[in-house]
Amino acid sequence: MELNPCRNPVVGSMRPPGDKSVTHRAILFSALAQGESAVIRPLVAADTLASRRLVESLGVRVVEDRDRWILQSPGPGAWPAPAGAIDCANSGTTMRLAMGMLAAGPETRELQGDPSLSSRPMERVAAPLRAMGLEVQTTAGHAPVRVHGGPHHGIDYLMPVASAQVKSALLLAAVSGSGPTAITEPRPTRDHTERMLQAMGARVECARRVITVWPSSLRPAVVQVPGDPSSAAFWAALAALTAGSELTLENISLSPRRIGFYRVLEAMGARITIKETSAVPEPVGDMTVRPGLLHGVVIAGGDIPDMIDEVSLAAMVATQAQGETVISGAEELRVKESDRIHATVESLRSLGAHIEEQPDGMVIYGPTPLHGGRVNASGDHRIAMMLAVASAVARGPVTLDGEESVAISYPEFFAQYGQWAQGRGL
Fold this sequence. Notes:
It is built from twelve helices and 23 strands. It is an alpha/beta fold.
């Protein structure tokens, strides 16, 4: 698709799509709780639909009622026998969390994915699950993965890599095991799993970087899904880069573990105000973004988990900021839907950015005028949306290949982007 430069201010209010992380967990956790759960304003996208198909294969009946999904689960003791491999498509969250969740059932189930997902590391989940006494097989460390549920026990586990998906898989396995499980994180990561398990009746204790969970029988829950700060970040970046903008993101998740990009954007010089409207089970509220004089910053390893999906976008914004921006400690980006470090550097460099690739990050020198050209999303939804933002500030048209990848997390993105580009608001 061809995208033309656009300097329309981003003005007004919008409610971003439902949070992908919360939607995934609300769907998946419902299978562990016998009875009727509800997910209000779920994100309907390729990734979350993979989680829905997975729980339906476990006997969960899903009924759509306007802006909510009603999920009726028979509970783990009544999950039907497997009818073939479960297709997780491109969703790493679906596959990794399911590896822990399936510990609750007595059957062997196989999880498979598309070529992109099948290239992502799964031993980081399988190895600690084996330490809990479960039988888990990977295919040379990747998918397809086979999980045999059954009796298992708690462990004390020091995570070598900060990963909310790995942590969540182990917490889910611990709920159906025997004895407590204590997980120590090298750095804090998204805590949606801990909060949701507590809301569903599990005993969970969090002390600094140690999360301890005890075996529990989960009860059904009604989950209100807030707006997704990762999806909203692309509009926030446009607002920060465009004179005259004033964008309010309504009913957005304000979890400290999710808004690292906004802290970086503010540190770069954008003006951001936050109004919290709810704190339970996690903080939600409104955020207003206005432009400012942007300058380079240092984004280090401790910042990365809180903005893991927005690092590429931060690099793009840095191309328009005064001075040097250094991003380090982001090696986990090498094993996302694409090698996001390489994809970011190569695509932005092809548009004229002065950017250098590092083993664990990148260095960006700005401000650099971007020009038009042809770029590829590398099959990665976050790269596709980042390049749409880049095209808006470029000095010539940008041809983007692979734009269809946005269906993974934000199917309406380009429709809304086109509406904004035509001056019709959001």
